[in-house]
Amino acid sequence: MKEVMESIGRGQGAMPGEFHLLQASVDDGDLFIEASVHFAKRSILKELENGQRQVSLFRNDWVLRPDDLFTSSSYRRCLLELESEHKLEVLAEDGVTPLPTPKRRKYRDEPTLSESLWVRLVAD
């Protein structure tokens, strides 16, 4: 359901997890329900402080939380952005072997992030 809402309810330039719902009875009346990308990224990083996690936690489990407006693809984008910002690293399905972007399959010239992979914080 969130995937449908996201494809229809996002305004131009809206970030993932940010929905702009227009009230039909009021001209130019916008009701904004925002789930901040920055908040989502902070939540991911906070979760990873407790150790590495499988990508499926964010893409399958977190999206089922009643108060979570993010979709699976939104979490995927957040994880990929955090990886590009060098805040987390992706591990292979064994949970041990690092799997950087160049070693992963690409789809439309963008790196993929399978739900069976793992992520962890980058060591300082």
Written overview of the protein:
This protein is α+β, with helices and mostly antiparallel strands and 124 residues long. The chain has one domain. The chain contains 4 helices and 7 strands; from the N terminus they run αββαβααββββ. The chain has helices at residues 2-9, 37-48, 55-61, 72-84; strands at 18-22, 30-34, 53-54, 88-91, 106-107, 110-111, 118-121. It has a 3-stranded antiparallel beta sheet.
Oligomer type: single chain
Described by strand count, sense and barrel closure, the largest sheet is:
3 strands, antiparallel
Within the largest sheet, what's the order of strands?
Answer: 3-7-4
- Molecular shape: globular
Q: What's the β-strand tally? A: 7
- Head-to-tail CA distance between termini: 39 Å
Low-pLDDT stretches are: 26-35
Helix count?
4
Helicity level:
25-40%
Average pLDDT taken over every residue: 82
Q: Give the SSE order as H and E letters.
A: HEEHEHHEEEE
Q: Give the C-alpha Rg.
A: 16 Å
* β-strand amount: 15-25%
- The structure class reads alpha+beta
Number of domains: 1
Give a brief description.
By secondary structure, this protein is α+β, with helices and mostly antiparallel strands.
Give the tags.
124 residues, alpha+beta
How are the elements arranged and paired?
Elements: H1 2-9, E1 18-22, E2 30-34, H2 37-48, E3 53-54, H3 55-61, H4 72-84, E4 88-91, E5 106-107, E6 110-111, E7 118-121
Antiparallel strand pairs: 1-2, 3-7, 4-7, 5-6
Helix pairs in contact: 2-4, 3-4
